[in-house]
Amino acid sequence: MFINLTVAIPTYNGANRLPQVLERIQAQKNIENLNWEIIVVDNNSKDNTAKLIQEYQKKWQHSYPLRYVFEPKQGLAFARQRAIEEAKGELVAFLDDDNIPALNWVSEVYKFGQKHPQAGAYASQIHGLFEVEPPEYLKSIIFYLAITERGCQPLLYEPRKKGFPPGAGLVVRRDVWKQNVPKHLLFSGRTGKSLVSSEDTEALLYIYHADWEIWYNPEMEIEHVIPSSRLEKKYFMGLMRSIGLPHYYFRMALIKPWQRPFLFFMYLLNDIIKLIIHLITYRKVLNADVTAAYEKERLIGILQSPFYLAHLKLLNVLNSVYKFETTNNT
Could you give the count of Cα atoms lying within 13 Å of 57 in the half-sphere of its Cβ? Predict the structure, then answer.
């Protein structure tokens, strides 16, 4: 049977979060004529995720299947790639295990894909579902928590102006991803204490360079569950630094190769000047002005970005050499 759509849910230790997502998916409306499936990709969880899905599968009475796959390589990039490989649908719609879709989300995903055949990827409107009300000073930068509210009209992304959407609630054409996105991305996603992600942006960059359109569809609405811990200063400081660290990679990817050696030093000087101006401007209030402190972390991350990228590439080379030697020795 031809499958129109795969809803893929990568999860890591999501046994406590997955039930509310699965319950909402089971309650979807206007799906009677849609052939679709659900895949939960267990990204090396240590909790009862596998057992939870087994229990759901035993009681499953829907026409669309609930499938479970295990991906041992830690990192959201590996989980998403595994979902693409396992998916049977021509469209693959990603939900994180803390994303609660609106009751018409699945039907709107399919509808938009049919209406916009040149869309290689398209993103949802994401609202924050906060455990506690965020403080006033965070509201101007709350979008960094993967909240995307860009109005009630569809929007075509222009990366140089509007960047790329987050991966939560993102829909891609399976064949477009397979043909254009490498199986091993430079950024693998948040692991351990590292908050550096950007694997979604990297994948979308390949799709964009292959001349596919990337859209924002406000009719696809999801709520992003945000615990109080993500509003704490320690978390946000780390998040803002991690947002700056991949900056150099994407900045250079959006300009022509011959321009990069010339613009590197110009950008580096500009980043230094921006950080100095920020430190001078807020020197007396950095300890009290939390927003200014967060921006300082982001600017430091941007300044470190080219060196972080070099470090990341070196690690990848060393890992490749190690795997090659291990394979030959065995």
Answer: 15
Contact 18, 52 (CB under 8 A): yes
Query: In whole angstroms, how far apart are CA 116 and each of 110, 111, 119, 120, 217?
Result: 10, 9, 6, 9, 11
User: 191 falls in which pLDDT band (50, 70, 90)?
Assistant: confident
Angstrom distance (rounded) from CA 184 to CA 167: 17
What residues contact 145, with CB distance under 8 A and at least 6 apart? 128, 224, 226, 230, 239
List the structure tokens of 225.
């569950």
Give the count of beta carbons closer than 10 Å to the beta carbon of residue 283.
Answer: 9
Long-range contacts, 66-70 (Cβ 8 Å, 24+):
66/22, 66/37, 66/38, 66/40, 67/37, 67/38, 67/39, 67/40, 68/39, 68/40, 68/42, 69/39, 69/40, 69/41, 69/42, 70/41, 70/42, 70/44
For residues 11 and 43, is the Cβ–Cβ distance under 8 A?
A: yes
- Report the candidate in 37, 13, 166 with the shortest Cα–Cα distance to residue 97: 13
173: helix, coil or strand?
A: strand
Q: Which domains does the chain have, with CATH numbers?
A: 5-231 (3.90.550.10), 236-329 (no CATH)
Say if residues 31 and 107 touch (Cβ distance below 8 Å): yes
The one-letter amino acid code at 233 reads K
Q: Are the C-beta atoms of residues 145 and 168 closer than 8 Å to each other?
A: no
Which tens digits make up the pLDDT trace of 36-73? 999 999 999 999 999 999 999 999 999 999 999 999 99
CA distances from 69 to 20, 54, 85, 116, 187 (A): 20, 11, 11, 30, 22
Rounded Cα–Cα distance for residues 243 and 1 (Å)? 42
- pTM value is 0.91
Question: Residue 64, exposed/middle/buried by CB under 10 A (0-12, 13-18, 19+)?
Answer: buried
Query: Per residue in 72-131, pLDDT tens?
Result: 999 999 999 999 999 999 999 999 999 999 999 999 999 999 999 999 999 999 999 999
